[in-house]
Amino acid sequence: MKVLQLIDSLETGGAERVAVNIANALATKIEGSYLCTTRVEGLLKDSIDGKVHFLFLNKQSTWHLKSILKFNAYVKKEEIQIIHAHASSFFLASIIRVFNKRVKIVWHDHYGNSMFLQNRKFKVLRLFSVYFNHIFSVNKQLEQWAKVNLKAKSVCFLPNFAVINNEPSKTNLFGEAGKRIICLANLREQKDHHNLLNAFKTVVENHGDWSLHLVGKDFNDPYSESIKSFIINNKLEKHVFIYGSQPDTFHILSQCNLAILSSKSEGLPLALLEYGLAKLPVIATQVGECTEVIDNYGLLVPPENSKELSKAIIQCVEDEELRNVNAMSYHAHIQNTYSETAQVKTILKVYNTICN
């Protein structure tokens, strides 16, 4: 079996990490594991296993003919049987399916705004979904949505899984050791950093020796600027630090003592799984699969409620024993429930079914 993971970039986002993780996990389990990024390379390129065949298309636009022809020739030459397309890359996969009737398409839906599915624009997606042999949805809401709105032959919920990759240890965090809070999330509105900053502002009033560290892609857009303005306007420059995208996720997490996601909407955030692998106590909002992932092993608060979020943070800051107990139980929970072994077994079962 030869399977190619297709993704638009290798920036440090959740969908991108999942694509790399699956390609790496399959490298020793099938005849050929491939990964193609269409538009942009990125920091995750260094995480690709040496056994994975890698292709970069440098696609300049949706209908960039040179890239389409190059990819089509590559799929034929390598005799790719399955294109596992992630997020918006379904478009290119569907075009290749038109030229190669024998190629099967698996689409992986990572849609993060699953709390607001009524606003999702999906006319093009629905049109091309007739070519999908299977859909993996990262939460149960997306699974049900796909069954109702799309035309794929089959759909199932597939939890994300995280792995500890060998990464260079280069990012050293500011702030006092033993009193660092991490938020691993790209600077996007759905991640609701303002909710977190408002909550942390309250925390600092009584625990000024604690610091907050924001790690994730900075798009340098109005949302990003509003975050930076909030930090300056509230005199938090010595307490809140922004690092942008960084390749050494687990080295960063190893320097922290409490992990948070304050999103207003989520699918199944990979960051929550990485927090667990790093043995960190966790606080998250009750959105997407966050409630299912954390279960009783961390603290959950309503979304867009900085008052409740600040209470949860203060509770953890003031109770080291609570942090330690939650961290170890959550770590065991993630290893047992969201392991690479279990999810890869499901993936291979689907691959074999659609090929046969």
From TrEMBL:
**Which residue range or ranges hold the Glycosyl transferase family domain?**
172-324
Q: Which residues form the Glycosyltransferase subfamily 4-like N-terminal domain?
A: 13-148
State the protein's name: Glycosyltransferase
Domain of life where this protein originates: Bacteria
Question: Known Pfam families for this protein?
Answer: Glyco_transf_4 (PF13439), Glycos_transf_1 (PF00534)
Q: For this UniProt entry, which segments traverse the membrane?
A: none
Q: Which organism is it from?
A: Mariniflexile gromovii
